[in-house]
Design brief:
Blueprint (H helix, E strand, L loop, with lengths): L1 E5 L3 H12 L5 E6 L2 H11 L3 E4 L8 H11 L4 E6 L5 H6 L4 E4 L4 H17 L10 E6 L2 E6 L3 E7 L2 E6 L3 E4 L3 H5 L6 E5 L2 E4 L3 E7 L2 E6 L2 E7 L4 H9 L1
Parallel strand pairs: 1-2, 1-3, 3-4, 4-5
Antiparallel strand pairs: 6-7, 8-9, 8-12, 9-10, 11-12, 13-14, 14-15
Helix pairs in contact: 2-3
Length: about 240
């Protein structure tokens, strides 16, 4: 999968490149530093996916994407920006996601996964579907179907994986578990990853929010700055 990075900030480009380089199914097709370069790379490299900052010089990312869509409508776009002013326009150009900075790996991987699924649905590639989460418990290896997982929380020095019928504990950190998950799973808090497909209700609880799941008594935490992201995901 060819990915184009369009970002004028060098540190953000470096971070995006680091994240993409760790994914075997994706490779970077080019790095644009402004909107005009984005159009040039899109025309010459024909990337499958573009990661686009909006506030770039010469031509902003939104206008550059609109130009690219004229000659490459199948290119999937993920906006990564520090401003929420263009969220409505992003959905008008059928962007896969609108990610606010600072960039979080799990959120980016989820957006890339959704972009890939759109491409797969167009019949361009055969998808690789993730089915199970593998965890270690002492000397045992357990496979948990991703469909069954409601959320994962970090408790003390263990990660607790909640399913409707059972909870599993492992010493593996959240960071190790999240790379094995797919786009259904969103980081809602520094200590929680939730399966957004099973999310049925969000309630305010002081300075934070609680996530509720169908037919399950326990809740997960959602940070205040994560609520809008989850609402956008559920609306896609």
């Amino acid at each position: 999968m060819k990915v184009l990075i369009a970002e004028d900030d060098a540190s953000s480009r470096k971070l995006l490149k680091l994240f993409i380089d760790s994914l075997p199914d994706y490779h970077i097709a080019g790095e644009a530093k402004n909107g005009e370069e984005l159009i040039q790379y899109a025309a010459s490299e024909k990337p499958d996916i573009a990661l686009v900052d909006i506030g770039m010089p010469l031509l902003n990312g939104m206008e550059a994407v609109k130009a690219c869509k004229e000659f490459q409508p199948s290119m999937q776009v993920i906006f990564i920006t520090g401003h929420d002013d263009y969220a409505l326009e992003a959905f008008e150009v059928r962007a896969v996601d609108y990610i606010m900075k600072p960039i979080e790996r799990n959120r980016l991987y989820g957006a890339l996964d959704r972009a890939a699924q759109v491409i797969y649905s167009q019949g361009e590639r055969v998808p690789t579907v993730k089915k199970d989460l593998k965890i270690k418990q002492q000397r045992n290896i357990i496979f948990i179907p991703l469909d069954d997982i409601l959320f994962i929380e970090r408790m003390d020095r263990k990660s607790v994986i909640h399913t409707k019928n059972k909870s599993y504990e492992t010493n593996e950190p959240l960071a190790s578990l999240e790379v094995a998950l797919d786009s259904r799973f969103q980081s809602s808090h520094r200590s929680y990853i939730i399966n957004a497909e099973h999310l049925v209700r969000i309630e305010a609880a002081g300075q934070m929010y609680k996530a509720y799941f169908k037919d399950y008594g326990e809740t997960a935490k959602i940070s205040k700055h994560k609520v809008d992201e989850l609402q956008r995901y559920k609306a896609l």
